[in-house]
Amino acid sequence: MGFGERLKSLRKSKKMTQIELSRVLGVDHTTISKWEAGIYETDFETAQRIAQYFGVSADYLLGKENQEVKNLTETEILDYQKIIDASRRKLEQGKPDTYRGRKITRSTLDLLEQVLQSAQKIIDEEKD
User: Fold this and answer.
1) Which of these, 3, 47, 112, 124, has the minimum number of CB atoms within 10 Å of its CB?
2) Which structural domains are found in the chain, ordered by start?
3) What is the pLDDT of residues 2-21, one digit of tens each?
4) Which residues are bridge partners to 102 per DSSP?
5) Beta bridge partners of 99
C-alpha cells in the first residue's frame, strides 16, 4: 500500500472528507484528491506533518512500513505512568504484578519508564 492509499485509509478512519483534511493541512482539496489517486506525491516535510496529524510514522504513511505505529499521546503517557507507579508500589509490598505469567521486576519497570520518557521527549520536540 502506497502513500495515496494510506492517506485515504487514515482520512476515512477519522471520518473526514478531503475538504476537511485539506483545511487541516492548509492545502487545496484537489491536492488531497491527487495524492490519494497517486497523481501527486508529497514532499517529506508535508508527509511528516500528515503523519503527525494522524499519529503514525512518516515511514508508515509513505508505505515503507507495513505496521502502523502510533505515537503515544500525553494522556496515554500519564496513564501508563500511573500503571507503572501502581506496579512499583505492589512490588515494594512484596506482591509483584505479572504479565503473561511472569513477575514484573524493578528493572522492567525502570525500562518502561525510560520508554515513556523517550515518548514524552518526542512530543515535546514536536511542539517546538
Assistant:
1) 124
2) 3-61 (1.10.260.40), 74-127 (no CATH)
3) 899 999 999 999 999 999 99
4) 99
5) 102
**Type of residue found at 107:** S
pLDDT tens for each residue of 47-96: 888 988 888 888 888 888 665 556 678 888 888 899 999 999 999 999 98
Helix axes 106-127, 74-92, angle to 10 degrees: 160
Tell me the Ramachandran region of residue 88: left when phi exceeds 0, alpha when psi lies from -120 to 50, beta otherwise: alpha
Q: How far apart are CA 128 and CA 123, in angstroms?
A: 9
Grid cell for residue 26? 492548509
CB 104 within 8 A of CB 87: yes
pTM higher than the cut 0.85 = no
| H helix intervals, 14-43 | 18-25, 29-37
